[in-house]
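Changelog excerpt

This revision adds worked examples to the README so contributors can see how folded entries look when concatenated. The first example is reproduced verbatim below.
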Amino acid sequence: RGDLQGPPGMLLPLHEPKVDPVRRWGLGDDPRGGRDLPLAPRVIPEAPPPDWIDLGLVKGQEHARRALEIAAAGGHHLLLIGPPGAGKSLLARCLPGILPPLSFEEALEVSRIHSVAGLLPPDRPLLRWRPFRAPHHTISYVGMVGGGHGIPVPGEISLAHHGVLFLDELPEFDRRVLEALRQPLEDRKITVVRAGVSVTFPASFMLVGAMNPCPCGHFGDALRPCRCRPHEIVQYRKKLSGPFLDRIDLFVHVPRLTKEELLGEGGGEPSEAVRKRVMEAREIQRRRFAGKLFVNAEMGPKEVRKFCVLSPQAKALLAKAIDRFALTGRGYVRTLKVARTIADLSGADTIEAEHVAEALQYRAFAEEGWP
């Protein structure tokens, strides 16, 4: 193969026309000897990073907190919509604290991607907690999906593999950058092609977006009137295309906190209690998929048909919702996946009507319109 040279953390073969630094090793193979590594289900213990924000510090927002738990349990994409100061960014930054640590095979995948990008800390050859990436809205197309001169390097969507990609002020991102996320949100991988080089990087991440309902941020606010003109609101919302929004699993309205909530002393459940339930739900999914998939959000058509079994009452409710909300095929499947996660959190084998009803709450927000 010839000598290897290049920047620290990156392998550059001199005599190969096509390079895939992730796929060449295989995500379950040892890059040094080509042997299969054991795909152990165990979780590597380590103290959580000290800069995590505890969910118990968040006041109010019970509906959003529940959506955060569902998203963490099933790996679902989430969009938080509300006025400035309602706590959207705070909620999103609490998400790492309720996610389980990386399993051994997940840690290998994440560590290899960061190594290829030259971002693996020298004192931590194996990353143990899920990455949380929060790029600024001025990020370029290449910075988001990967690329660059010579051998392509991973972008933010790959660096967030098995973790969270948080996009604050979502409509302020370049339209081309957001549209580039559509395929990775479905395929959970990205192929970057440059002259003579084709590289495929994993990109199985949770997308969490946060945005205001209008340019001034106060549309629908009972205390502060909206100052935007109707056409300004329309143009603002058009920055997010229908196909992009159709790939979001949970839409959550985050309202202004009341004075009672602001002045109250107590918060909600701490992250540790929520993380325990999330880990129990993920253990159910690990046994269900037997190592082939990690979370419900990764299910394909075959898995949805096999594992999303509806009770007669749930099927009748979903049939009404299809007509009521004009669900697309993708919206229908995503509702099933979210309902499967809600059922896992409650320990149920069959998806019941109450699980579908709760899943539809998060879907109806998008199908009916904005608040």
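The second example, added in the same revision:
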Amino acid sequence: MSTTTRTTDPSAPDPEIAAVIHQIISEHAASGHPQEGRLDRELWGTLAAAGLTRITGSEDRGGSGAGWPEAAALIQECARHGALVPVVENDLLAGWLLDQISAPDDDATRTVAIVDAAGAADDVAWAGGTDRVVLLWQHDGTWQLADVATHDLTVTAAAELSDAPCGHVRVDLATLAGQPVPGHLLEELCLRWTWARSLQVSAALEAALDSAVRHTTERVQFGRPLARFQAVQHLVADMAVEAGLARVAATAALVEVVRSGFTADASRFAIAAAASCVGHASSTVVRQAHQVHGAMGTTREHDLHLVTRPVLRWRNDPFPVRHWDRVLAELAVAQGPDGLWPLVTDGLAPRLPIT
């Protein structure tokens, strides 16, 4: 990418990488969708061959060494097309954690789970659908990390809103040889996690909006397109406003991450604000997308559910929307009248309940 492009728009990915990502995922989506509840091995293999399954990993550890704009492009393209691949979990979360302890490289698929003192973690995204799970737990006040094969865990299927695998994980911690890791890694993990979910939600909301616009302009009732009815126009306009807000908030968080990394105050504040914005926007967009599509929008044969159902999970993972609302409100109140504007422009770090 040219220096000019990076300077004028720090969120813009390398155009060649973005084009490859779009071509791979859009062409695969056009060929049909895999069976629900399973990793799309065909798409995953294609992404791996293109060096995209560890897009942010360092090149000396088998990654592609790409930047955050390229990672965001991959995350959002997958979300936009309802792709059943764990790009966030495998690269930004589990892969990054293993990089921090210089664990051996391999081609296994991974997700991540934070387990409690009893060795339990519920509703773990992709648990049971990947080869391995990177586990984190506390022992005597120290965080421990272990990379465990899925077949060495007890994983039971959990109710899941999207078609991606999800499971309850159980493990006997006494059988694990954990490696100590500093607590700040947990904080950055949660920030990465929240940031990626915001990107996924914003992209999926835009896809839902695009589908609504397409449907209302093509579908004819009572002699005219649905888009000519004022009530329908209002629904779609509300969707456009909320999806636009989600996109701007997610992009602002991306810009801060590109500038300062994940743990700078401005980045942490932007990530928290993005999580709150996309979470609330999703309520309006998902509800009204299905409303304007009518009965066909509730069927499995229609693609709308591929982008709306995952949103309802992503917006509350790893923390619920109400958490971000609360911490942002507490920050605003704590600043007082004179500090509110500096808070908005400069940001402050919200607290993260990682224990």
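Reviewer comment on example two: The CA atoms of residues 235 and 288 lie 6 Å apart. The radius of gyration is 21 Å.
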